[in-house]
What we know:
Layout: H1 4-24, H2 36-65, H3 68-109
Helix pairs in contact: 2-3
Amino acid sequence: MTDPDQKQRMQQLEDKIEAAKQAQAPAPRADEHYSQAQLAWRMVIELVAGLGIGFGIGYGLDVLFGTLPIFMVLFTMLGLAAGVKTMLRSAQEIQEKKLADEAEKRDEGA
């Protein structure tokens, strides 16, 4: 069996190992949380992507059917509407996360 002195040395060794692991653990990344600029760029890209996809589909259909501006205008407007809808959904998602974080901080403080 093991004597108390050996158990104590083993515990001290485990404590040293744990301290060394924590000292070498990577620091949490600062960019884990999105900054406001990154969120704004995300929404701009969603809007532009909707416009681009709508324009591409409309232009392709116009070339295919030989009716140059009709489908291009129609699908560009539909792409704009889809981009705005996606952008608003992203903004709502961001707002819900922010409210949840604030509620969590408030609950921790109470």
